[in-house]
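During data preparation, a discrete fold description was generated, and the record follows.
___
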Amino acid sequence: MTDSSPARSPAPADLACCLPTFRGPLSAEEAEPLAAVFKAVADPVRLRLLSLIEHHDDAEACVCDLTEPLGLSQPTVSHHLKILVEAGLLTRARRGRWSYYAVVGPALEEFGTLLRDHPRTED
């Protein structure tokens, strides 16, 4: 017999085992850029944008490609894209009147590495 109940998203506590941990205390200078990335990815729309762009043809997309799947207006999508660019998670290339966005390949991986591989301080 198969389970016909809808799939449930894991609760944040369920995901805690998969989150990277700090390997040592961060300085104020180290925490600032990391906090900007956390803030950028803390929004569900921005997470969806990252995944939509990464899986779009040629791994890049124009705002016009993203408004319909998100059900949001062009100015709203552009605002979210700007935040992701400022956080270093997306690149923006102008082509005529249009801007095309691409995920910075190793950016998300580096983000996790910052947390995992930060050197421990000696006690």
